[in-house]
Amino acid sequence: MSNSTGRRVAIVAGCRTPFVRAGGEFKDLGAVELGRAAVTELIARSGVDPREVRELVFGCVIAPVRSPNVAREVALASSLPRDVPGFTVNRACASANQAIVSAAEGIACGQYDTAIAGGAESLSEVPISWSRPAAQAIVAAGKARGIAAKVGAFSKVRPRDLLPVPPAIAEHSTGLTMGQSAEKMAKENRIGREEQDRFALASHLNAAKGWETGVLRAETVTVWAPPKLDRHCDRDNQIRADTTCEALAKLPPVFDRRHGSVTAGNASPLTDGAAAVLLMADAKARALGIEPLGYIRSYAFAATDPWGQLLMGPAYAAPVALDRANLTLAEMDLIEMHEAFAVQVLSNIQAFESAAFAREKLGRDKPLGEVDRSKLNVHGGSIALGHPFGATGARMVTQLLCELKRRNGRFGLLTVCAQGGMGCAMVLER
């Protein structure tokens, strides 16, 4: 990725917190604290002077009420100078990818030489709101003068209005949750339960191997838990190294209990965590004697009708990103696909390989190509590792570039599906 001035954007370092199940070890840590842990460790590991960093961009999907601009709060809480600005983006599950692209565009345009991008999510700290009648009554009571007027503001509030309202988990446009949309895709694409469970098993086994060999350990920072800092978490806690297809087959469907195939075992769990990467102009990195992990060769965002197949965004974004990179799927040494659900990845792979999809949906003469499963999510994906909405994209970028380095590979494709029928694809290069 560069502009006409030739300012190539390099990724020089990356790390993340452990990804843990919501309500677990990080239940007393918010998105800001998790982001601080990732950013502070990133700076320490990179050896770069914090004063070199001139922007921080973070993704966060369910922002905390008291600190909606998570990026700026992370900048203030971390080891960065206080004059480093920060802004927060939300592109649903592709939020960290958007953060990385936004920071990279600033570098390519010459606004600054060095930036940090990533994301954080605390699903243990979701904001719980009031119903509209209750909220309106509370505001009116705050403005009212006198006890009688304050009490009168609640005269039309009914007991049901006092029930807490959690964040929406359904699409605003369709009313369907992602899980329901995944079930719809499983039926329409004829992807059965056994195939989904086999894919989920591979995610767990690959992730377990990644920890056993120390590969994922090297990318992860230990986080100490408040208030006494006498407990710590140093690894992902949702990987099931001992699971089997037989064990996964016993889990009941969640979203269609009678005829469904999507279960807790073949879907990504609600997760807390943060991840960050350090980006630099290539010339700046070279001047500082830093060898980049890799480069952003190209990227693309796309969208499709949520009333159709909600999670097919990657099948629309990947061809564009590969075209912009002047590369083909066959030239990719590794492929990382976000595993919101096993059926979502399998559906997109099906589309990659389908001549009919290429012709009817993309207007292309031939399909994108076959996905070599030996190159796919080689150290596990979101089903096993977890999925903090705002952070996953940065975890994937670091994981992909580090594995390319270990294998002496050159190109990697990364895809993410996102709420609203969106998709993201990035081509990374060493």
Could you provide a short overview of the structure?
By secondary structure, the chain is α+β, with helices and mostly antiparallel strands.
**Strand coverage percent:** 15-25%
Task: Determine the structural class based on helices, strands and strand pairing.
Answer: alpha+beta
What gap, in angstroms, lies between the N and C termini? 12 Å
> Tally of extended strands?
12
Topology (SSEs and partners):
Blueprint: E1 9-16, E2 20-21, H1 31-46, E3 56-59, H2 70-77, E4 86-89, H3 95-108, E5 114-121, H4 132-143, H5 147-152, H6 178-188, H7 193-212, E6 223-225, E7 231-233, H8 245-249, E8 271-281, H9 282-287, E9 294-303, H10 313-325, E10 334-337, H11 342-352, H12 355-362, H13 382-385, H14 392-407, E11 411-418, E12 422-429
Parallel strand pairs: 3-4, 3-5, 10-11
Antiparallel strand pairs: 1-8, 1-9, 2-8, 5-8, 6-7, 9-12, 11-12
Helix pairs in contact: 1-2, 3-14
